[in-house]
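Question (not urgent): is this output format expected?
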Amino acid sequence: MLASPFFRKVLLVTSLAVFAGTVSGSALLANSSEVDRAEKLIWGSGSEARPVEGRQALEEAVAVKDASAQRVLGMHLIYGWVFEKDVHKGMLLLNDAANAGDPVAQFNLGQILLVGTTGSKDVARARILLEDASRQNEIQAMRVLGEQLVLGTVYAQELKTGLTLLKQSAELGDIRAEIVLGDLYLKGKGVPRDLSKALGFFESAATKGDGSGLASYGETLMWGEIDAKTTEQMLNRAAALGETSAYVTLAEGAMYGYLGGGAVSRAKYEGYAELAREAEEPRIEVLEANRSMWGIGKRASGPETIGLLTAHADAGNKAAAEFLIKLLRDGNGLNVRRDLAAADQALKTYAELLTARDVAKFELTLKAASARTSDVFARVATEIEAQPDLMSFGFGKDLYKANPNIAFFILQTRLKDQGDYGGSLNGFATRSTLRAVYKACQRLPDNTLCDDSVMRSDVIAMLLAQNSEAK
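Got this back:
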């Protein structure tokens, strides 16, 4: 694992000193006002947009090796915000800007390579880029690398260095770093759980206008049944700061009796549901479908649930479309049966609401759901492993729900390759399989759930995502 002398000394150099020492006389010192002018032309800031002129200005700046222009045009071409996508050219430009020492380009390229956004995943180079950007006090790079070093998923855990990076990022003005720190302590991810520390970071972020931490903290209090009154107040504060998803959380808590218990809690549902709709929070319709599916405050009906979700998906609600596809793929064991053909048709119908990445994940889980024999398990598992950039904790949970045999087949294969499993590759949770999975679980940064059951979907998902990221 890469570890520079700089990180062993834990970020003691200021950005200006490093900047002067590493890029003296470079293209970074080119006229950034020209790049700003080009961006205004592209987006139409204060006037009508003139993207052709804006691009021409960027191209002219790129021709004289202006790193800022290379980075801006590169990002435009990678993501296709205004111009037609050209990922190859965009990555070349972004790479040139990063090599020239542009810290924002180093962060952007590092993040792309860390996640595999463009299909190119290189976690070793990503770390080098994020370290280089952090040397120049690029606060986003500090936050991203700091979080990874605390979690110990992609890289070996370096808790002290990771926390130092996150705290320095926060001190330099990165509100998101405060939210990340609060979330780590709230959930005990990489660090011991400490609600007091979590709340301190969230309150600090709230004073700067970010209520997302309060929303997370309030939700944790609610599901933990810790002080319903404080929970409600905190979630309402979060919503007032613009985190209107808190209204959905409040509606859900009211529905299940977590806001004062029984009839008192349920009576609050409609009010919070209406606030969520006024804020155009799409997940409220998924919540309403759950009420219909499980018969909460109304008669349970599978067909009505499918009808509600279909109507909202037809109206362009992405959350409803995703929930509908998953429900048809998996069924609910009560009043909605698994219907893979209907799930496949729903995916085709609502594909335009989803990202290409979403569609690819759904296609793989639908293939997994239809697999019944070891040879098919192997084919589907191979296809999944060929696309490691798609693997995430959420995808791992969906895959396990769609077909646990596929998930176990993948883990058996990986553990066999590592010399930790000597049994058959069959996708079944045999005794030897579970022993090997348990040992792998014990090596996770967060292994608190291992002794409960390694057949939990969240444990399997952590193993799938962690092993994939480590490749």
